[in-house]
Amino acid sequence: MARKRKIVEETTASKKVKVEPADVTDLKQRLTLGGDGSLTGTRDDGNFYARFVNMGQGDCIVLKTPGGKVVLVDCGSSRTDDGLSDAYLKLFAYHNLFCDRFLSADYPQIDILILTHCDKDHFNKLKEVMKLHDGYVTVGEIYHSRELSKYSSTLSKWIQQSQTGTEWWVTCNKDTDDNGSTTLQRRGPSDTKYQPHPLGAGPPSLDPEGGLRILTEPNCTITILASGVEEKYVADDDTNDGNNRASVVTLVEVFGRKLLLCGDATWSTEEYLMTKSIWAKKYKKRLKNVNIVHVAHHGSVNTSSSPEFVQLVAPTERALISSGKVGDPGYGLPSRAVVQRYHNQFVTDGKAASAHDVWSYPNGIVTPSSAENITTPVYSTGSVVPQPLTLSPLDITWVAPG
């Protein structure tokens, strides 16, 4: 009996005790203190809100429409930032998403989920972040490029368990050479492809300018302009089986303003939008001088943000890059050349901002990233360190007129 007790005691002592990372403890303490009170607003207040979440090397964008719908665009990371733990990253993301503006215990519903493409740094934290919620999170409509099986079996299973609406595999790549199509495919044994509804017959529908409308409210529309672009119109250095090129590109129009979300779109995707799409002439009018642009592919100069595209979109308010402070040395993301490209566009247009640092790679993967002082509204998620419940340049607030 004594020998048995000794074995049990030794086994118990040998078990590893989970120690909470110091950065998680610090974050929890800061959360209890709250922020400066600037992050106000609720899901039903009629305003438009968006937040770009720092995921290190990754992407996560959450929107709240004037009609109270919550839209989540990606949620993933392949590299934490500046020595931060993975546990910190997930807890930080959770508290960015679960606040009065977006998700809450009273309404833990993601009305629309957009998965731009099947690179893991855009989807692999979704399930883990949602599991931090003490309750069940549901997902309504889901839109993604390429088949869902290309993402992960874990994510696919979570989606099936959480979904209350329809999952749509979106193809929006019809070009002037009659390649591609504008179709939607539901998950199911028949895998039937559907044409979009006529506008007004319910989402998703084809609007007069060729976009795939996935949300319509009196003061807000959300439209997919590209998804599943396959043709290599430009040598875009897309090494991931064309996944980046296939990214969902989404245009949000609200109160007469525009927010363009680019995923990891490449030069070929940009070329499709500007010249190759059968709707290119109308697309160019829609994309000209957007208010805020989400810079494509974490600020890559080898794949995205061609001078022609930057000059076309020429944002009037901000350019936001999803990238870490240290960034990804394997790819040199973000590139200083892209930061400068948008900076120069703002200078040309006479748009200035308070001086701030943006971390980037001067020579791609050759040298370490470093900070550059910028005096125009170009920001990266890793270069801004928002305090809990506090507004930052990564937040968008567009107030309902009147």
UniProtKB/TrEMBL annotation:
Residues 56-134 form the Metallo-beta-lactamase domain. Residues 179-205 are annotated as: Disordered. It comes from the Bacteria. Keywords: Hydrolase. InterPro entries: Competence_DNA_uptake, Metallo-B-lactamas, RibonucZ/Hydroxyglut_hydro. One of its GO terms (molecular function) is hydrolase activity. Pfam families: Lactamase_B. This is Metal-dependent hydrolase, beta-lactamase superfamily II.
